[in-house]
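DATA SHEET
Item: assembly model
Revision: 1
Owner: S.N.
Input lines:
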Amino acid sequence: EVQLVESGGGLVRPGGSLRLSCVASGFSISTYSMNWVRQAPGKGLQWVSRISSDSSGIYYADSVKGRFTISRDNARNSLYLQINSLRDEDTAVYYCARERGFDTWGQGTLVTVSS
Amino acid sequence: QAVLTQPSSLSASPGASVSLTCTLHSGINVATYRIYWYQQKPGSPPQYLLRYMSDSDNLQGSGVPGRFSGSKDASANVGILLISGLQPEDEADYYCMIWYNSASVFGGGTKLTVL
């Protein structure tokens, strides 16, 4: 079964940091671009970042540029998102999603930024 | 003006057909973009439904019923998700998405009520 499982979310104070992980099973991520998409409570979907299959292409939404870093370890079949300088407005469920079409999604991990 | 605009809500009766629209910014030609559609039910991650470029370039999600289909109305610069034979389990939020300037952009979503 093709599956994505996120982890690493939690409660963090403004200005803090977290590292989110996404582990894939049932397929190898090495041939796919991967993405992070977030959803604030009660709000719509917002794309955060994309990384190409070999990490040669990396893209960010303007709202996170300079604060978030996407990376991947194809040998570990894993995707990561380092999030720094967290703000209240970063509170959201963070999903990893496969390929440009987001054809597979994880269940998400909740990041709550609050003092 | 947002890149993608969706009506915030829509309602229809079981068995009916409904068209969910995704209007592109006037400076973006719908003919040149693949439109992706997702369904999200409360408490669950989004699910890929389909992508539509043209009748000869479209891709249904695995396990997605054929009563979900895509189209475009070039005269209105709109992408359309058509759901025929509405069922109670189709009640959900629906999002459209395009890739624009190396970034993924989602519409604000349409809440579909089946009553």
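QC remark: The radius of gyration of chain A is 13 Å.
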